[in-house]
Amino acid sequence: MLKQLKNTAELSEEEKSLLARVGYQGEESRAGTCVLVDQSVRCASVGDPGVEIMPLREALIQYDWVQDLMFGLVDPGESDHIKQAAEDVHDPVGHFVRVKAGAKVRLPVQTFSLIETPQGRQFLHNITVIEEDAEVDLISGAAVPSGVHSGHHISIEECYLREGAVCRSVSIEEWGADMQVHSYARTDLARGAHSISNQILMTPLKHHFSQSRATLAEDAVCNDRTVIFAPAGSNRTMESETLLKGKGARSESLTRMVTAGGNVVNRALIVGEAPGTKGYLGCDGLKLTDEGEILSMPGVLAKTADAQLSHEASVGMISEEKMAYLMSTGMDEDAARDLIVQGFLNLKEQELPPTVRMALEKMIAAARSGSM
Amino acid sequence: MQGTLQLRDVSISAGTQPVLNAINLEVGEGELHLLLGPNGSGKSSLLAGIMGLPPFRVTCGEILFRGERIDGLPTDARARLGIGMAFQRPPSLEGVTVRRFREVLGASSSHMAEAEALDLNSFDDREVNVGFSGGEIKRWEVFKLFLQTPRFLLFDEPESGVDLEHIAGIGGAINRMAHSLDSEGARRSALIITHTGLILDYVDADAGHMMIDGRVVHSGKAGELFAHVQRRGYKLPVG
User: Fold this and answer.
1) N or C: which end of chain B has fewer CB within 10 A?
2) Which pTM does this prediction carry?
């Protein structure tokens, strides 16, 4: 039964419709929901006894152990933004999501952030804990109404996957064209934990800096896939580190980048620190125009003799041969190009909610035609 | 009767390199023609030139399809007029599933019996031509034409690389397609490149053409011409 948390309100129909583009569905079809609007938690509800969701401020009061998780994975000295958050005298704003030990959560948990105030500043700190042997699907997203095109979003995400936990996540962002976004994500995978994550970064964005780090204990597994689309005027810099610290830890990271005039920098590093670790980085870029740049820098660092680490990177234009092949079936040039780009980004139906998939296909078509 | 496809003194270049000279060829409605010739004689270039695939372009002469000149049209326009091609070596389309390809083509599901006949009924989630074996590629390329339903069919070595078990499936499918009517009730026509001639066990070809060094040097009855090639190789028949 759906339980609305006290001091929270319902979303408006406009807000629901806006968030549907990044994966929102009615709360009755989710195991839990949390939506942050500007600098407050607007809506929070839980529909599964295995899930707890609340504002981070309340979680710090309710559970004394949460304070040990906050800044447990991220050092305040790592960046000015993180330091600012650590030294802020105000209550932290963000969500706390907990999936209880052993819970196999049937419906997804969804969390979103909205900036509704033009030139708004949003500074979030979110903590997620998936306890021992729990299993959950997470859908998260960010959006702004069409009238908001400038603002600044800064987020710190700390995610703990305890022993044997399984977390499948999809994250979709749809920001304003002149916005700035800085995101710092840290994930700690305990022994035998498994994380499967899909990140979709498609809309124009003036400046995006994303820094993520995952630490894997013994036999933990991390599979992540990121698709990045950079229309003209977008600048995205992605930095990621995967530390295979435990024996037998494995990681596979695939990044697909498409530029239609924007700039993408992708620096990814896998470090094999223990025996029997395996890691793979695949970084492929596709340029749709002469404008824009893709800089892809995958790196592997082996600290033990038997770490198996590898990477592949490529950047190229759309193949004339593939275009001709599709056009020989009667598809026009735009349809052929869209299909190739969709295929390159690998937007498989089973990984995305249908509304999101449709929105992304429209974005690709809009970016190609220059109307984005 | 006016041919469905007519090539009049057609010369074709690959980029700036001339590859075919003064080709004259006519395929009538409902006719199946074979194209024979040694490796490098220009057979695949001719099909690519008819389809309008880069880098091939007509530098001289004209190609008419159902009376309309098409040699200046882009590839997709030729396809929409009713020309379809089964490629010999198609590119792999990473991330594009057979299901998605069908959806974008707007193909009906009425051809699923053909998918089964071609042993492709479990291919919906496969990525087009990614990891396909040689035989799977050929079967897919034939099935692709069922999805397109063109009036004029171009086959570039549809049986090469196909195991004997599937040759009958491919040959039968080509025969069914070639002898079916298109959406306007017209009979389909086809131009088929073959090296092995195995396809002749399943399709009744009306005419054959021999290509040597970028020219059509001889045309005649398909069966007789293929028998000649089997006996004498690609030597010009006498008389």
Assistant:
1) C
2) 0.81
